[in-house]
Every structure is written in C-alpha cells, then in structure tokens.
Write a structure and sequence with these properties.
Blueprint lengths: L4 E5 L9 H9 L14 H15 L3 H8 L8 H9 L3 E9 H10 L4 E9 L5 E5 L5 H11 L3 E6 L5 H6 L2 E5 L3 H6 L5 E2 L2 H12 L4
Parallel strand pairs: 1-2, 1-5, 2-3, 5-6, 6-7
Antiparallel strand pairs: 3-4
Helix pairs in contact: 1-3, 3-5
C-alpha cells in the first residue's frame, strides 16, 4: 500500500517575506536584517535579535504593525491550493505563535508548528521558548514514524535538517552560498518548478 503524503513547508522566504527584514525596514535598525540565511545557529541569532530589541525599545506591537502589512509571496495561494488538493500540508517554522495569526488567516489557517515568546506587561519581548530543539527535523521524523511519506521545502540553514530527514527535500530560492554548501538538494526558483518537484516526489498529478 502506498504511503499517504505530508508536505512540510518553511514559512518565511518560502510562503511569506521575512518578518524580521520588514521590522528592520520599519524601525531603521540594520542589525535586525540578520536571518537564518546568515547565521546557522538559531540560538545565536535569537539572542542577537533580543538584545537589539531591548537596546532600541522595540516591542511586540511594532512587530504586529509589520505583520499586518505582509502578504503571501506571489503564487503562494495557488501553490497551497494545489498542494491541499493532493496531500496534507504542515508549515514548520522558527517563527512565533505571537506573530503569525494574521499571516495564517491569509492562507485559511493551515497547521503550523512554531515557537513561543515571553512578553512583559509593556510589550517587550523578554525571552523565547523553543517548542522543541531542532523541531523541524523532529516533526518530519515523527510523521515518518506514523507511516507518512514526507516531502519538504525550505530556503535557509534552519531548514537543512528538515530536508535531510524528509523522503524528498528541496530548496526554494535559497542564497547561492547555501545551495552550493548542500548540493544534494534540488533548487526550485519558481512555484511552478516547485510544484513539479513535489509532483514527481509525491506521485501527484500536475
């Protein structure tokens, strides 16, 4: 019997623009432009971000203002519709539940696994709490243990373990440096190309 398929997608860079880049533009702080495309160690990246937020007095309300301006990347709504007709879809992201409600609403509330924040009474972010260390890989491993065939797509260092663990993993518009560092993963540069990868790996009709 053929296994049912679950497709796991990164969020920022694959489905939506980067939230932190939008925040950097809004508040004019270039130190917030660092993302998982630049720093492989997520804890190092988040500690840098928290320090910058404290130093510049940036609150969760500033982040919410940015999130409300963000729309899915062109072609994402069609990609999600195409995938959901063919398999289950889960978003695996290193963003935070306190950010993503308005974004998930635009995609009709798909399932998302991400992390949580500590926020004080004034709206300052005091800490972050991983749902699970290396949660993208762990989620794929758990799905495979339930006898699903898992396909995955991401764009950054924090997606590599997810792609390695999946039955078929693909990069979507990664930086050239990351694509060259991990040449085993095919690179899609457009959503039609990504659909073709998923169709072949999952046995889906195009």
């Amino acid at each position: 019997m053929a296994k049912s398929v679950v497709t796991c997608l990164d969020m920022e860079g694959v489905l939506f623009p980067e939230i932190w880049l939008g925040l950097a533009d809004k508040v004019g702080v270039d130190d917030l432009r660092l993302t998982t495309r630049d720093i492989a160690d997520y804890d190092v990246l988040m500690q840098k971000r928290l320090n910058v937020l404290r130093r510049h007095g940036i609150t969760i309300h500033d982040i919410h203002d940015v999130v409300r301006t963000i729309s899915p990347l062109p072609g994402v709504v069609e990609l999600m519709h195409w995938l959901r007709e063919r398999c289950q879809v889960i978003i695996l992201s290193d963003t935070f539940y306190e950010f993503v409600g308005p974004l998930m609403e635009q995609l009709q509330f798909p399932t998302i696994f991400c992390h949580s924040l500590g926020i004080d009474s004034e709206g300052f972010i005091t800490d972050y709490f991983l749902r699970q260390k290396d949660q993208k890989r762990q989620a794929v491993r758990a799905l495979k243990s339930l006898s699903f065939r898992v396909l995955a797509a991401g764009d950054s260092y924090n997606d590599v373990s997810m792609l390695k663990e999946s039955d078929a993993g693909f990069f979507f518009c990664p930086p050239d440096s990351i694509a060259q560092e991990y040449p085993q993963f095919p690179v899609a540069r457009t959503y039609p190309e990504l659909r073709e990868f998923f169709a072949r790996a999952g046995g889906f009709p195009l």
